[in-house]
Amino acid sequence: MHINDWNSGSENQHVSLKPVSVLLAVGLQTPNPKSKAKDHQDALSKRLALWKDGEISKLIRDRGRIIQSRIGKFKGSNHPDKAKVFAKLVLEGQINSALRFLSENSNGGVLTLTDDVMTQLKQKHPEPQPAKLGSVLFGPLNDEIPESVYSQINGEIVRQAAFRTKGSGGPSGVDANGFRRMLACKSFKQSSTRLCEAIARMAKTLCTQYIDPTTIEALILVV
User: What's the chain's Rg over C-alpha atoms?
Assistant: First the structure.
């Protein structure tokens, strides 16, 4: 497991987390909007085989074709299930996605950079102001936290956090529902447990040790 490679400080630690984001992004893409669980399993098996063989370019091309085939299909205010889609996104906690869905229309796109557009953009981004005195901290800060606080982090805490987490996808493209299924679904048996424990160990390491920033780029950047 790539996360365990990072946890153990292997020679590939500097790139260990990037394959995690890439694999999630290219491996979990549904073949089509109406595909069934069996289709998902078949597609994932084929993608994992390509991944193990190092055929990353084929995986990315396959994902690109899937995304391209869907562009524009659900845009516009005439979507027949607009209310249902909006309600589903809200109930899943994806508020930004729900609002974006409502605001999308078939006439969307990149605006021509006219003088009027530039004026409006400048109005939306005013000149920076000096910090107010009340928002500034002075003097030395005692930010040392005993390591014993972080010793409580374990796989079960990660699992419980997955239940409470809501929102859209991060760098990997997997939203809270996707991670909840991977981390807490009993169908995966020990695989979910091991993943929770690996994430817990990584969290404790991040909290208690100095980490080379280049090894965690995948946590903050879209690969």
Answer: 22
